[in-house]
């Protein structure tokens, strides 16, 4: 694992955006795996700025997002499709039909998940997967479990994730209880992985991921076994490492 320590969130965002920009420049038709949550927002802001200043071209790449709430439509302002449109896709020259997010409106979960795996396979796999980190070590929506889930699947969100994500919803009962997420196997198949982590509240879990045992109880700990992982984290997040 390569670890970059930054002084704060802004520097973390800039560093992560540089790594993504380098990927786009080196392989203009690359497949980016993208993430939601508050941590990557600054990374997307930098990418949008560089696009606007003429330094980046998104027109030949594709993207696949990690996850989507089950039951939310793309127009719902809490859906991850909506998040991606407003934070990135609407502001750059990416072809919308080359951006993929699991279909939260497909009620048949097997169908939704199989279709998503097929999309990733048809694209030829993911070149660079961006990840945020949940407080319990989840990546995408792969929650602590007895074993590592391999492919895209439907999950019941844990109480801690519901609590962490309720800040984005009007009331707690509006938070969906299920989501479709890439599996750990899907994530581990990406050629490169980039993890962004910020803040004191992530310090304990980040230390476990870097130095603790590899266990499905801490899903992101499996990243220790991936050959090309870069963690970009600020001082606060790295304070226990
Ligand atoms: C959600 C997402 C994850 C994300 C996590 C952390 O649960 N499914 O992909 O990494 O939140 O979010 P934040 O960056 O807001 O702490």
From TrEMBL:
Domain of life, per lineage: Bacteria
Assigned EC number: 3.5.99.6
One Pfam family in the UniProt entry: Glucosamine_iso
Coiled coil: none
GO biological process: carbohydrate metabolic process; glucosamine catabolic process; N-acetylglucosamine catabolic process; N-acetylneuraminate catabolic process
Domain Glucosamine/galactosamine-6-phosphate isomerase per the UniProt entry, residue ranges: 11-224
Gene Ontology molecular-function annotations: glucosamine-6-phosphate deaminase activity; identical protein binding
Cellular component annotations (GO), alphabetically ordered: cytoplasm
InterPro entries the record matches: Glc/Gal-6P_isomerase, Glucosamine6P_isomerase, Glucosamine6P_isomerase_CS, NagB/RpiA_transferase-like
PROSITE patterns for this protein: GLC_GALNAC_ISOMERASE
UniProt KW keywords: Carbohydrate metabolism, Hydrolase
Catalytic reactions on record: alpha-D-glucosamine 6-phosphate + H2O = beta-D-fructose 6-phosphate + NH4(+)
Associated pathway: Amino-sugar metabolism; N-acetylneuraminate degradation; D-fructose 6-phosphate from N-acetylneuraminate: step 5/5
Stated family: Belongs to the glucosamine/galactosamine-6-phosphate isomerase family. NagB subfamily.
NCBIfam families reported in the protein's UniProt record: nagB
Biological role stated in the UniProt entry: Catalyzes the reversible isomerization-deamination of glucosamine 6-phosphate (GlcN6P) to form fructose 6-phosphate (Fru6P) and ammonium ion.
Record protein name field: Glucosamine-6-phosphate deaminase
Organism: Blautia pseudococcoides
């Amino acid at each position: 694992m390569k670890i970059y320590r930054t002084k704060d969130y802004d520097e973390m965002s800039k560093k992560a955006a540089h790594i993504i920009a380098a990927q786009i420049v080196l392989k203009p038709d690359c497949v980016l795996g993208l993430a939601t949550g508050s941590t990557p927002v600054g990374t997307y802001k930098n990418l949008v700025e560089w696009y606007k200043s003429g330094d980046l071209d998104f027109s030949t790449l594709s993207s696949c997002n990690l996850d989507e709430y089950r039951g939310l439509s793309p127009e719902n302002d809490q859906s991850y499709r909506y998040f991606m449109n407003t934070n990135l896709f609407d502001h750059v020259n990416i072809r919308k039909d080359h951006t993929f997010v699991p279909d939260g409106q497909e009620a048949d979960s097997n169908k939704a998940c199989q279709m998503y795996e097929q999309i990733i396979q048809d694209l030829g796999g993911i070149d660079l997967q961006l990840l945020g980190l949940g407080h319990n070590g989840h990546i995408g929506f792969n929650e602590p479990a007895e074993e590592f889930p391999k492919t895209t699947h439907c999950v019941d969100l844990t109480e801690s994730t519901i609590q962490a994500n309720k800040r984005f919803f009007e009331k707690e009962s509006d938070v969906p209880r299920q989501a479709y997420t890439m599996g750990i196997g899907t994530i581990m198949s990406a050629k490169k992985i980039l993890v962004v982590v910020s803040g004191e509240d992530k310090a304990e879990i980040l230390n476990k991921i870097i130095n603790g045992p590899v266990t499905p109880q801490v899903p992101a700990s499996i990243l220790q076994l991936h050959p090309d992982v870069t963690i970009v984290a600020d001082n606060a997040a790295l304070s226990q490492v």
